User: Which sequence fits this backbone?
């Protein structure tokens, strides 16, 4: 293989595919980036056997071919090369010369023919979705994807589309995040479970303009964003019928400024040991226009009062894991939210005041 | 103690004194910040028994007194409090209430009377030096301060003043950095060895405008910068007579662009394992206007050619630890440097082309 290409394009392509490169693989193949030069294009691929990212760009292909180069090494070399033009050439012994200006690196590549092939995607369905919209949908649900591998159905988010409505849903057993969007055109019906890691990779390749194209098969998803293609395995598990657990009543209902609420929870978080159910954050509603937030631990205690815009229903004292509130309140861009409680042991629902495109359910901690 | 003060002033003061707070002390006292309220001023102190930092600011002192508060905790609480005004009050049981707006923290402090006293500085000498100048002097020498505790004389930098000349010198056994400045006024003669950690703390409290006042005794240094006072123990060791090891001849002399040289060394550094003397960076001068930089390791090899502005003397091949060049070239702000070599085993001297306020010596590696 011998190519001459632009440093900035190569750097950008490496940055993208590197996200799918295994960081600590036992296979040194998977620490590498696959370079394929053909038809005056270079294709770069990173693949950890679950998610693959491929980027293609135009280059001066002097000799077609392919080589595997250690991802971390090639990324660092490219960043530090002096000129905007880079030449890469490898011989039949996989010795690879990377040069630019007066600088020349001579490193050992690996045989590309040993690299695992990305699955062929013979797609059933194609969804076209604005990138910025899907990026926000991911950011407002991904935190509720569980990393507990003993329950694989919770390790991804459900992508559910039906006529012009697209929905992303994540559940981890203690909370549920649902993000809905309406498009002004119809898309195919799809119901797939995308792994959390793939969602994070998709998020990282999305920009603020233009659409993404999403293709699905029974087992895989393929996402096209400009010159970048991402392929991922899907999770083959049944997803909980979450509509059943969303209550449609409430016993206490408040409306509150999102940032004020967030900052009070942040202050409670300062003295609460993370994930220790013995030390919850307590919310107390006495019927007045103030929500009392308290936290008491061996460190000390913290008391706060946040003004409510609106209060309706029963007085209440209820305990939560404060982190579950932080995760959601951090990504809600609306100025105010409504929070509906169903007694001290029933689920709590957070929604923006305007519209119902985002619904977040948290189970309280039992005293 | 009971005080009411401004959040921004308290936050700034905590940030300064926190640098002298022990991060992992066995004494929980030293993890704390001392608060002393007196005469409508609050004094905050952090002290790790070697370096102490004190900051004072005006506050509304409702009840004089003192308390020790865990540094990390109070720093986080202050950052997250809602209003610009903060009230702190502690009772005789060291229970401390920190409140702002509707938020209130109730934490346990410690008895301030157990806190170690900062040494009294009855200074012999006072030096007044522009802050920005001393900051640059530190940044251009501190990297050559050794952290190898088996040789205490190398764990600090020598501050040497004589009439209107002030000098900071660091040696670690393999290299030497000397930074000299001339003032337009006389300062006392001083010769003290400031610990590297104290130098770093001094650097962190220095701004770009105004002077610092530096007081010395036999055992201590005191630095005043506005409302901030730093006290540190000095190293009681003889410092090497470094003038003796600075050669005043050369066999090869070059002038080179500082950034071009730095970037070539950075590229060599990419494939060189840090601190492994078996894999040096090699410089080669063949009498042409090009300096060849090469590095060969088990990873591969790297070759570079940097244009010289000027070459004089013998042809030469010489090996170095590339990190020693990176450290110095990074902090030299001059466009071009001269480098003088004394054969493949003699010391090498780097200086800016204009002036001799900075001199850096590196010993080569023996092949």
Assistant:
């Amino acid at each position: 293989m011998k190519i001459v290409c632009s440093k900035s394009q190569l750097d950008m392509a490496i940055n993208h595919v590197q996200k799918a490169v295994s960081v600590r693989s036992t296979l040194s193949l998977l620490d590498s980036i696959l370079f394929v030069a053909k038809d005056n294009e270079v294709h770069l691929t990173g693949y950890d056997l679950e998610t693959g990212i491929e980027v293609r760009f135009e280059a001066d292909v002097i000799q077609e071919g392919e080589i595997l180069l250690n991802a971390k090494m090639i990324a660092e070399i490219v960043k530090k090369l002096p000129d905007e033009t880079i030449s890469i050439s490898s011989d039949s012994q996989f010795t690879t010369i990377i040069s630019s200006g007066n600088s020349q690196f001579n490193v050992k590549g690996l045989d590309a023919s040993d690299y695992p092939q990305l699955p062929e995607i013979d797609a059933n369905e194609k969804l076209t979705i604005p990138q910025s919209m899907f990026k926000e949908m991911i950011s407002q649900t991904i935190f509720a994807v569980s990393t507990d591998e003993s329950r694989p159905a919770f390790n991804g988010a459900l992508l559910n589309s039906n006529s012009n409505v697209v929905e992303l849903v994540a559940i981890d057993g203690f909370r549920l995040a649902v993000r809905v969007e309406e498009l002004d055109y119809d898309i195919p019906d799809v119901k797939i479970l995308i792994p959390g890691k793939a969602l994070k990779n998709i998020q990282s390749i999305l920009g603020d303009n233009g659409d993404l194209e999403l293709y699905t098969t029974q087992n895989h998803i393929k996402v096209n964003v400009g010159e970048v293609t991402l392929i991922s395995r899907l999770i083959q598990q049944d997803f909980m019928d979450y509509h059943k657990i969303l209550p449609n009543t409430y016993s206490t209902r408040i409306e509150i400024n999102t940032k004020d609420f967030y900052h009070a929870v942040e202050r409670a978080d300062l003295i609460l040991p993370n994930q220790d159910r013995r030390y919850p954050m307590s919310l107390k509603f006495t019927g007045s226009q103030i929500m009392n937030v308290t936290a008491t631990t061996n460190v000390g205690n913290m008391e706060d009062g946040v003004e409510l815009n609106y209060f309706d229903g029963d007085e209440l004292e209820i305990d939560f894991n404060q982190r579950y509130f932080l995760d959601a309140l951090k990504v809600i861009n609306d100025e105010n939210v409504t929070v509906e409680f169903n007694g001290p042991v029933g689920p709590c629902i957070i929604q923006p005041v305007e519209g119902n495109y985002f619904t977040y359910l948290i189970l309280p901690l039992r005293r």
Chain A has a mean pLDDT of 95. The longest helix of chain A spans residues 258-271. Chain A touches chain B through 28 residues (CB under 8 Å).
